[in-house]
DNA sequence: AACCCTACCAACCGCATCAGG
DNA sequence: GCCTGATGCGGTTGGTAGGGT
């Protein structure tokens, strides 16, 4: 036995909404709110619509501050980055793009962006560029890309810079007391903010912009949870820094420092290979490391 | 002008989860 | 703890507009 339908399907109107229906629904909700009960709403409003249909119409079309139309490059990048890291969790992605609805983003992805990504992937692979860390820093615009600056004690993140010095890198440390094999860890939530704290003292000693920093002894590497990846950064005594995907263990994007030059994966939209795999396998959540399966914590409230 | 194809997007459907009794 | 109705989410469908032949 299946579950009971949410409404009497024989008596509800389906298909496109008329301007009159829109006006009725908008007027009612603006006046009275949803009342926390979408099922009962159509009757109160005087609409022959299913409650779910009303909810969808409101959330995707009528609700204030909805942004329709062209997606910007920045939005493209955010979508791609997030898709690469969390898969097709459109409501979460939508929560990072004010004014955009999950439905909108989903449609945009399925009709345009996915093809764009595939086209980019099909184009001849560009050779990794050799560039100084400073130039990487300067060219880095993606909100989800983590970058490092090879100046004495500075690391850089596109959303804010912070200073970090360990004795490995600079020989001294002015801001925190870190041992030679200190470990630092950064967590970034969905490309929006990143906090560091000193895990030895448990102090948020150098929160710089939206970064915080945790330091632990005994480990010679670091972990970044970025919007794209969980990154590992390994340090050794020769000042080698290496980014790798901590989830898969594979090195991604960055290679060793060589003669003061660094190689950067020429990737602008997150990890294309990963996106390609996601598209290909239709497996959207394999590498979801930011969320557990309990959806409660990810739920996004619209109203 | 008629037909076909493709892209786009609003809306639907079914399932998972939540929350209250 | 179980049951049931409500809600939220993501996949999919179907209608339509626009361009090409």
UniProtKB/TrEMBL annotation:
Superkingdom in the source lineage: Eukaryota
SUPFAM superfamilies hit by this protein: Homeodomain-like
Domain HTH myb-type, first and last residues per copy: 9-66, 67-117
Keyword Nucleus included in the entry's annotation: yes
GO molecular function: DNA binding
UniProt domain Myb-like: residue ranges: 9-62, 63-113
UniProt cross-references to PANTHER family, sorted A to Z: MYB-LIKE DNA-BINDING DOMAIN CONTAINING PROTEIN, EXPRESSED, OS09G0431300 PROTEIN
Keyword Transferase: no
GO cellular component labels: nucleus
Compartments it resides in: Nucleus
Keywords tagged on the record: DNA-binding, Nucleus, Repeat, Transcription, Transcription regulation
Predominant location category: nucleus
Protein name (database record): Transcription factor RAX3
């Amino acid at each position: 036995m299946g579950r009971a339908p949410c409404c009497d399907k024989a008596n509800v109107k389906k298909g496109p909404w008329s301007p009159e229906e829109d006006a009725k629904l908008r007027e009612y909700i603006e006046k009275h709110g949803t009342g926390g009960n979408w099922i009962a709403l159509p009757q109160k409003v005087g609409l022959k619509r299913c409650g779910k249909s009303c909810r969808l119409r409101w959330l995707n079309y009528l609700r204030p501050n909805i942004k329709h139309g062209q997606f910007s490059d920045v939005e493209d990048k955010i979508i791609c980055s997030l898709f690469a890291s969390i898969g097709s969790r459109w409501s979460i992605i939508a929560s990072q793009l004010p004014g955009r609805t999950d439905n909108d983003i989903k449609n945009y992805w399925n009709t345009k962006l996915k093809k764009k990504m595939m086209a980019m992937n099909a184009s001849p692979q560009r050779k990794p560029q050799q560039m100084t860390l400073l130039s990487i820093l300067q060219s880095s615009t993606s909100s989800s890309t983590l970058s490092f600056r090879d100046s004495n004690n500075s690391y850089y993140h596109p959303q804010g810079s912070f200073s970090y010095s360990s004795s490995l890198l600079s020989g001294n440390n002015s801001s925190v007391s870190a041992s030679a094999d200190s470990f630092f860890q950064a967590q970034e939530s969905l490309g929006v903010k990143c906090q560091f704290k000193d895990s030895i003292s448990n102090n948020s000693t150098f929160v710089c912009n939206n970064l915080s920093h945790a330091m632990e002894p005994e480990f010679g590497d670091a972990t970044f949870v970025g919007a794209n990846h969980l990154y590992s950064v390994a340090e050794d005594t020769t000042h080698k820094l290496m980014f790798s995907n901590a989830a898969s263990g594979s090195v991604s994007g960055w290679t060793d420092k060589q003669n003061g030059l660094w190689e950067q994966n020429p990737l602008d939209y997150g990890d294309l290979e990963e996106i390609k795999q996601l598209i290909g396998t239709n497996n959207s959540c394999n590498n979801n490391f930011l969320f557990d399966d309990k959806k409660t914590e990810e739920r996004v409230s619209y109203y």
